[in-house]
Each structure stands twice: as structure tokens, then as C-alpha cells.
Design goal:
It is rod-shaped and about 80 Å long. It has two domains: 1-29; 32-108, no CATH class. By secondary structure, the protein is of the alpha+beta class. The protein has helices spanning 3-28, 72-87, 96-108, and strands at 32-39, 42-49, 52-57. It contains three helices and three strands, in the order H-E-E-E-H-H. It is 49% helix and 19% strand.
Length: 113
């Protein structure tokens, strides 16, 4: 093989390796985003994963019944909690204790057993 052909082959092989690595790492990172929406007399949220609805949550999770969030702030904070769990590769499930922690007494008013 001529020296020029070897250089072309090596350059092509390196380019191919770089492309394969780029595609591999690009697929690992997911972009999550919370979008709020009206739900009955309150609010809910969608979690989008790479611009597609991944979780649709019209009601407060961990609360019995179909109770929407009373305000945007509460829905946004809960959506952010879910995203932080997804980013850490944890279950997106939200507990009552987590809701109490992030929403405080005002956000949980009227929802306690």
C-alpha cells in the first residue's frame, strides 16, 4: 500500500471512530422539560423527554383522588422534582413526604388525611 493510501485510510478510520463516539454519547443524554397546563380548576404538568410527552400528570401525585395543583408554582416545583429524579436515573414517583417538603404547609393545605 502506498503512503498516501495509508494516510487516507487512517484519516477515514479516525473520522469513523469519532462519528461512532458522537452518536453513542448523543443518545445517552436526555433533555427533560416541564410544561404546565390547566387541569380542571387547577394545574397539572407534562414532563417532556426530547420534546415528546413522557409523563402526563393532571393531578397531584401521592394524593388520593383526582386533585389538581391549586397553583402554577406547586405544579412547577413538583415537575422539577420529577425531572431531578429522572436525571439521576431514579424512579419519578413522588411521595407525600416529598410533596410536603417542596410545597410546604401552604401547598399541602386541605390535602392532609
Amino acid at each position: 500500500m502506498k503512503t498516501i493510501d495509508k494516510k487516507k485510510f487512517i484519516a477515514f478510520a479516525l473520522f469513523l471512530v469519532i462519528v461512532i463516539i458522537a452518536f453513542t454519547f448523543n443518545g445517552r443524554g436526555h433533555f427533560y422539560k416541564a410544561e404546565l397546563f390547566r387541569s380542571g380548576q387547577g394545574w397539572g404538568y407534562d414532563i417532556l423527554k426530547n420534546e415528546k410527552v413522557y409523563i402526563h400528570q393532571p393531578f397531584i401525585p401521592a394524593i388520593e383522588g383526582e386533585v389538581p395543583f391549586s397553583d402554577k408554582r406547586s405544579a412547577r416545583k413538583t415537575g422539577k422534582l420529577v425531572i431531578s429524579k429522572l436525571m439521576r436515573q431514579k424512579s419519578p414517583t413522588v411521595t407525600k413526604e416529598e410533596l410536603e417538603r417542596i410545597l410546604g404547609d401552604e401547598g399541602m393545605e386541605g390535602l392532609r388525611d
